[in-house]
Amino acid sequence: MFEKLSSFFDEAWQRIRNPFLFSFILALCLYNYRITLALFLWDGTFKHLLDFICDEARINGVYIWAALGSATAYSVLFPVLQNLISAWKAFSIDWGNKWNFNISKESPVSMETYFNFRKNYKEQQENLATIISEEQNISNLLTDTQSELSTSNRQIAELNTKLGEKEAELERFKNTVFNLSMLNGYWQMTVVIEKQTPIEEIVRVSFEDGRFSIFDQGGTKQFYAFIENFSLNEREEKVFFVKRRREYPDQDIYQICNFKYSNNGKKLVGTEDDNSVVYIRE
After folding, report:
1. How many other β-carbons are positioned within 10 Å of the β-carbon of residue 89?
2. Of 234 and 212, which is predicted with more confidence?
3. Architecture of domain 180-281 in CATH?
4. Cα separation of 265 and 237, whole Å?
């Protein structure tokens, strides 16, 4: 029920908003202004109000045809009049602009020159804004590039430092790994000869820049062999070298020596061929 009433009032409102119908109702109220005022201001009884309306209608009429004609004239003539007013306004503005423009031609700076200057000025402003924006982008790019360059230089410096450390370590490794001078000096050599009955011998020996010598019981030093293929493994604390001695006029004898060192290189424990050997620095 409520939806039907709402639909009815909506439809009625749409009809009242019709320009012709609204104009007719307004004209009818104006022509019958005494009745209109009575409807809003009457303080008597409803019967007296109806009697007043009937008397007015009988004496003066209700002006229906006049209201209908006024509504028709308004609906037909008002859009034309409104367009005439808009056209007159547009014509007046255009005429005024042309008049001012013609007057300005006689001034030191004409309107045409002023408008051209203003247009050029606006274009220059836009170009300047574009240039400033591009310069800002270039400045930001330069800042980023300088930051990246600083970072790269710092990384290069760090890499150069590490490279220097590695080169120093490599040089130290070269000087240590293949430098058999670490053996130079006098040693007590204990040899266990592996036979059916192991025999232990203790002799005094010396290493001198690749030459291995043995001292006899009288203390006389006798050259025994050359030290070759020396290498040092600091990580595993191992020493390897080969003893080469001339046993026959045309034949060399080689002894493979593997040792593990301790006590800062003052003790070597290992084998020479199949014999267990211990060197202790004096």
Report:
1. 10
2. 212
3. Beta Barrel (2.40)
4. 9
